Amino acid sequence: MAEELTDYLAEHGVKVRYLHSEVETVERVEIIRDLRLGEFDVLVGINLLREASICPKSPWSPSWMPTRRGSCAPSVP
Known about the structure:
Blueprint: H1 2-11, E1 16-19, H2 25-37, E2 42-45, H3 49-52, E3 64-68, E4 71-74
Parallel strand pairs: 1-2
Antiparallel strand pairs: 3-4
């Protein structure tokens, strides 16, 4: 699902990458570094709360939890 959303956003001109459990640790570190450096604007992922904690300089970190396939509702902290 992360890959599909990433592809959709990229097709619409958004500089985007994705992150999920199948991404190797070294690549995860590179993705987080590139986000901090501004190489891309949107990070799409599954269960990113742990990774979000190491991106404190991110100005905006929305989080959505899927309620059913094809539908997402914003999570409430």
